[in-house]
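Tokens for chain A. Residues wanted.
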């Protein structure tokens, strides 16, 4: 493997070197000017920028979020031989549930809309109908009858044992008792099916409605009724899906099937959103059903690294890694081509703003006498107002030239023989934004420093 090509331009002067070249009075004046019209965060960030080398760029937390810059380490990928497949995001049947009406009726008190997250057992709506009251009434009747028949059955049993009563009378009572007991259990099950507790039914609290609870935890992705509409029995009213269980259904061509094995690693991305970044998975199993028209078989794959924007039905492009040799690789968005070379941006420092502000504040203590009392009060107020921003981390990236290799599956081989670089953190998305920011800073120059 070819050696990594690195560029390490000399760093600019440190903050201490700057202080040596200025008198205390001059420094106090500069500090006053720097804070005038700016908050502490701006002053601190500008001071850090002045210390950067030409190959370095400082990125604020706001910039990291606004242009979607993420960091990560290189990974070992088998890019020498990959199998390109197409498929979609799918849910196993156990992660989808239809919520249907057992007894037809009028929909009331709908409590959710599409997109709501729900927990298993949470009530989504109610169904109201007179048959619900009739079912509870039949249950109470059978329950009361059960008490009478049980007592009569026990009495006839004693009489039969004492040879006082005929066996025929006992058999008739026994049949009535067992038939009613079966009826009671049947009505109890029907109440359970409409989510009414039979133990809680009494003549005083019979209800004309029954609830529709969520059978699984997940998201409501369909509401098929509105308040006041009559729905017949067994009509689907809601559809709930647990998106945490999504997986990949990939169509693999006949010629590639022998190369697919359980546990093989893969990378994928949405077919219609190349900016979603590279996600990862592994092969679970191959389906035993072959489609003679498309000459493909279905391969199920587990998603091991994904974002929350994946929804069932989305089309994906996946690359199943089948090579023997693993190489160090970074996502394509981590590599920038410029002037016939390839560059990546390595994290060289993470600056905690609160600590940096404290250092600069302590360094300025000898000049405290040159500041006005009102300035001190203003600084204290600004520090308090921007406390959250001061606790944010600013990242310093350094541009490094690298030699690249094969590119597959949204990943590009990067020649990294240095163990420190293999374990380093790099910008793995939108490195172009870092290159633009570095060029912009270079064009503006770093006042007071030579690079």
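Reply:
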């Amino acid at each position: 493997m070819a050696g990594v090509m690195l560029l390490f331009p000399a760093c600019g002067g440190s903050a201490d070197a700057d202080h040596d070249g200025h008198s205390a009075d001059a420094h106090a004046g500069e500090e006053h000017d720097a804070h005038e019209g700016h908050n502490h965060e701006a002053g601190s960030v500008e001071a850090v920028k002045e210390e950067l080398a030409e190959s370095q760029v400082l990125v604020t937390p706001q910039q990291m979020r606004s242009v979607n810059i993420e960091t990560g380490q290189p990974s070992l990928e088998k890019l020498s031989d990959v199998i390109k497949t197409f498929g979609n995001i799918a849910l196993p049947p156990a992660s989808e549930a239809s919520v249907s009406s057992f007894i037809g009726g009028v929909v009331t008190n709908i409590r959710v809309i599409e997109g709501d997250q729900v927990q298993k057992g949470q009530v989504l709506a109610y169904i109201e109908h007179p048959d619900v009251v009739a079912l509870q009434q039949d249950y109470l009747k059978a329950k009361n009858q059960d008490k009478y028949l049980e007592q009569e059955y026990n009495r006839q049993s004693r009489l039969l044992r004492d040879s006082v009563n005929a066996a025929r009378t006992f058999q008739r009572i026994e049949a009535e008792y067992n038939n009613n007991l079966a009826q009671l259990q049947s009505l109890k099950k029907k109440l359970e099916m409409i989510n009414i507790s039979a133990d809680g039914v009494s003549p005083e609290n019979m209800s004309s409605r029954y609830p529709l609870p969520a059978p699984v935890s997940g998201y409501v992705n369909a509401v098929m009724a509105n308040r006041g509409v009559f729905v017949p029995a067994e009509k689907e009213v809601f559809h709930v899906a647990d998106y945490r269980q999504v997986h990949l259904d990939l169509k693999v061509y006949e010629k590639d099937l022998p190369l697919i094995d359980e546990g093989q690693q893969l990378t994928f991305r949405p077919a219609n959103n190349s900016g979603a970044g590279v996600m990862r998975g592994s092969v679970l199993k191959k389906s035993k059903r072959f489609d003679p028209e498309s000459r493909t078989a279905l391969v199920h794959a587990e998603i091991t690294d994904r974002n929350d924007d994946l929804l069932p039905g989305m089309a994906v492009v996946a690359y199943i890694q089948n090579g023997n040799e693993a190489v160090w690789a970074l996502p394509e968005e981590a590599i920038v081509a410029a002037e016939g070379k390839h560059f990546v941006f390595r994290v060289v420092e993470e600056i905690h703003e609160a600590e940096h502000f404290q250092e600069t504040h302590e360094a300025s203590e000898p000049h405290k006498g040159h500041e006005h009392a009102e300035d001190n009060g203003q600084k204290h107020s600004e520090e308090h107002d921007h406390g959250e921003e001061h606790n944010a981390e600013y990242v310093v990236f350094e541009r490094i030239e690298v030699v690249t290799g094969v590119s597959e599956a949204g990943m590009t081989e990067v020649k990294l023989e240095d163990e420190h670089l293999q374990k380093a953190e790099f910008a793995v998305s939108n490195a172009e934004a870092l290159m633009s920011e570095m060029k912009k800073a270079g064009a503006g120059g770093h006042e007071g420093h030579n690079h």
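The radius of gyration is 36 Å. Residues 1-43, 355-391, 446-451 have pLDDT under 50 and may be disordered.
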